[in-house]
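Project channel, design review

CF: Before we commit to the Roseimaritima ulvae constructs, I'd like one complete example in the thread so the newer folks can see what an input/output pair looks like. Taking Thiol-disulfide oxidoreductase ResA.
RD: sounds good, go ahead.
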Amino acid sequence: MLPRYQLLCASLCFGLLVNSAASARGDEAAIELPPVLLQMSRNQAVWDEWQLSSQQITQLETLLRPLDAQWWPARIQPADKRLATTKRLTAQLRQALRSMCDDDQWNRVEQLKRQALGTRMVFLKEVATALELTAEQLQDFRAVAAATDQAVAELNRQQQSGEKVADAAEKLQAIQDQERQDIVGGLTVAQQAKLGPLLGQAFDFSQVKRTHPHAPDLLLTDSTWLQHPLSGKWDDLKGKVVAVHFYAFQCINCKRNLPHYAAWHQDLADQGLVVIGVQSPETSAERDAKKVAAAAKAEGIEYPVLMDTSSENWRAWGTTMWPTVYLIDKQGYIRTWWQGEMNWQGTPGEQRMRDTIKTLLAE
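CF: and here is what came back for Thiol-disulfide oxidoreductase ResA:
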């Protein structure tokens, strides 16, 4: 039996949120693997496991910034475009890592990638070759993955449509467990015996805190600070936890979130939190800087507000909904975000985000 530690997709919170319609076709290209290398490559615990030197870490962080600027907005693209983007960026990252790593380091990079993919590592060409998987096995595994994707997509649909889904986390875990059981059960004893060298020693993925890109710098080409101007560069905010919220001042859902942001600023600024409002317009009135500034004053907003006149920041961040708030850690990495009213229909979203802010402040 394949040890559970080697099936780590869920523990990394990479999820199985893939295009079920594409996967249902059953072709190899349709299986969307989580971009685990992009996700794990920004964590000290992973760098330590790869035994990277300080020089290599600096080189890697420098490389990731332009990749992140493309990866982050790609999350809202159609599945085929998103997959093409993550595939291209992953290839660039792999090439750079291979050039900077010695053979032992590179072997560990590959092992952690496979561990993070869990059972879906069977769709990697090098794994399929090493295990000598048959065409029939791969076809069966693709069908299993497609069934998983369809089940997860239906669970997501129910949640996004506002349906009450009891025990959603348990249902997701059961779906993933079923995929694990079906794929492992489809391997021969001889194939399972070959997994050890491909996976190496178990890595504790609970140490991985960052799985999202570095936050984009705030663009100032067509945007103007209405109050408390900043440089917009994350390098100038290192050591601070930042909440960036996108809003439109006439949006009723946005207005209902504003008191929460104000309370965060009031309660946590002294502990190192910076709140930034980005007003991205939807209506003609929201393109009038004077009206936006007057509304901010009327709402009692005391933190920096950026007038995103042409929505350049909205696009750079891949934002799709008013309101949306992102939480950025002390090193400038996006850690989580919330779309819509935080306390919609009794959801304790504000408390969850406040708790996350406190966790980030304590890091």
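RD: helpful, thanks. The two ends are 38 Å apart (CA to CA).
CF: The first helix runs from residue 20 to 23.
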